[in-house]
Amino acid sequence: MDSGEAVVVKRMSDLKPLSSVEFTRQLHIIAHQKHPNLLPLLAYYYSKEEKLLVYKYAENGNLFNRIHVYIVLSDIMRSNNTGSRGRDRIPFRWNARLSVARGIARALEHLHFNVKSQSSVPHGNLKSTNVLLDSNEMVLISDYGLSSLIAQPIAAQRLIAYKSPEFQSSKKVSKKSDVWSYGCLLLELLTGKLSVYSAPPGMNGVDLCSWVSRAVREEWTAEIFDIEIAVQRSACSGMLKLLQIAIRCCSKSPDNRPEMTEVVREVENTRVVESEEEDLSVDPSLTDESISTGASLNEQ
């Protein structure tokens, strides 16, 4: 901008047939959401030909790149649809990941209990590419509330909430669909694996809910965690606690998923480690401690 401030302009398409008044009403609901972990909507533009949203620019990119840092090489991509973590990757240790999990949970809790709207999905599209990091590594959630603008056939194809188990069977989404999305995001954060729900076009992901369920059931829990945090022995109990929260959030039954207020409380109580430079080796107790995790899973 002329002022020197950088912003992001999002061009909207495939919207519901909304009038200018209806579009403005929905945008005001989104713009009035004030929370430290929500990306601020600064302005919008509406015309028959063009709908634009203007957001604050987050300097440190998105969580997808922070986890994976994929180097997309055209010849490799054509052959096996994979990438690799870059050599210049900034370490993404346990404390930073836990901080991200907390920021996302706080933002979702705010949306679930502070949105003055009839919309049943306060976010609707929570995924790692929609979790941004500013210059201070503060978590900023983007794309919240846009499900109220998108035409449902398009939403069913593109938005994460519409890929939840309940939408597949009953074609319904709710706040609990957001909770499911949060659980999927936690699993991506813990495993470092590419989720099928957030994989960019042309790249293959894993159904992390099913993969983690199998890992816990067959008691190879130690192999679940991204090696970058699995080697932090003092973070072992915290990783298992966050895994248990993720498993509950990913329950196939919406009624068995916790409310975001409960999730926030549990994630806030998950401890950081005092030093992240200590004994970097995989803790063998991960497999033993997984028994309690497996019990939680079997109850879902």
TrEMBL record:
<dbReference type="InterPro" id="IPR000719">
    <property type="entry name" value="Prot_kinase_dom"/>
</dbReference>
<dbReference type="GO" id="GO:0004672">
    <property type="term" value="F:protein kinase activity"/>
</dbReference>
<feature type="compositionally biased region" description="Polar residues">
    <location>
        <begin position="287"/>
        <end position="300"/>
    </location>
</feature>
<dbReference type="InterPro" id="IPR046959">
    <property type="entry name" value="PRK1-6/SRF4-like"/>
</dbReference>
<dbReference type="Pfam" id="PF07714">
    <property type="entry name" value="PK_Tyr_Ser-Thr"/>
</dbReference>
<dbReference type="InterPro" id="IPR011009">
    <property type="entry name" value="Kinase-like_dom_sf"/>
</dbReference>
<dbReference type="GO" id="GO:0005524">
    <property type="term" value="F:ATP binding"/>
</dbReference>
<protein>
    <recommendedName>
        <fullName>Protein kinase domain-containing protein</fullName>
    </recommendedName>
</protein>
<feature type="region of interest" description="Disordered">
    <location>
        <begin position="267"/>
        <end position="300"/>
    </location>
</feature>
<feature type="domain" description="Protein kinase">
    <location>
        <begin position="1"/>
        <end position="272"/>
    </location>
</feature>
<dbReference type="InterPro" id="IPR001245">
    <property type="entry name" value="Ser-Thr/Tyr_kinase_cat_dom"/>
</dbReference>
